[in-house]
């Protein structure tokens, strides 16, 4: 997190979505410039997947702490001058994953999107593991 904090500050990024965090459970950690929120698999499971956010500390007062979520989908809600904005950090299963895992991800993503009021802004960001071509 220290390296990410430094690089995001250098680039003057306000909010970043993170995938493959590989952190257990869920939580938050405040560093000098950013607060990190994450959700991963349980402590006793392999350290894989995981999603999260890095939010500039000056914006924390406008940010609702993410709740719920999974190791593949996490939503963040922020208050702006134009109203609420929702940011979803997603990490889709790879093409080599089972059809069941891909279907579960799609259903969970659809459920997350359906919970966001249409009157609020939405940014859907992440690693969707897409491939283009026939190879």
Oligomeric description of these chains: single chain
Low-confidence parts lasting 5 or more residues at pLDDT below 50? none
* Main β-sheet description: 4 strands, antiparallel
Radius of gyration in whole Å, from Cα? Answer: 15 Å
Fraction of residues in helix: 10-25%
Number of strands: 8
Content-based structural category: alpha+beta
- End-to-end Cα distance, whole Å, is 36 Å
Please state the average pLDDT score. 91
Helix count? 2
Task: Give the SSE string.
Answer: HEEEEEEEHE
The shape, in one word, is: globular
Strand content: 35-45%
Strand order of the largest sheet: 1-4-3-2
Question: Would you write up a description of this structure?
Answer:
This protein is of the alpha+beta class. Helices cover 19% and strands 36% of the residues. It is built from 2 helices and 8 strands, in the order αβββββββαβ. It has helices spanning 2-11, 99-114, and strands at 15-19, 26-30, 34-39, 51-56, 63-64, 73-80, 83-91, 121-127. Strand 2 and strand 3 (34-39) form a beta hairpin. The model has no long low-confidence stretch (mean pLDDT 91).
